[in-house]
Amino acid sequence: MTVLVVDDQSAVRDALCEMVEALGYHCLAACNGEEAWRILQTEHVDVVLSDWQMPRMNGVELCQRIRNAENGNHYTYFILLTGLSDKEHFLRAMEAGADGCYEKCSNLNEIRAYLGSAERLVNLHRRLERESQTSLRAARTDPLTQLGNRLRLDEDLATVWSRTKRYRSTCAMAIVDVDEFKSYNDQFGHLAGDAVLQRIAQTIRRNVRDVDGVYRYGGEEFLVLLPEQALRQAVRAMNRVRKTIEQLSILNTSARRIVSVSIGVAELDPSVDASIDAWLARADAALYRAKALGRNRVEI
Ligand code: GH3
Ligand code: MG
Ligand code: MG
Ligand code: MG
Question: Is 185 a pocket residue for ligand 1 (Cβ < 6 Å)?
Answer without folding.
Answer: yes
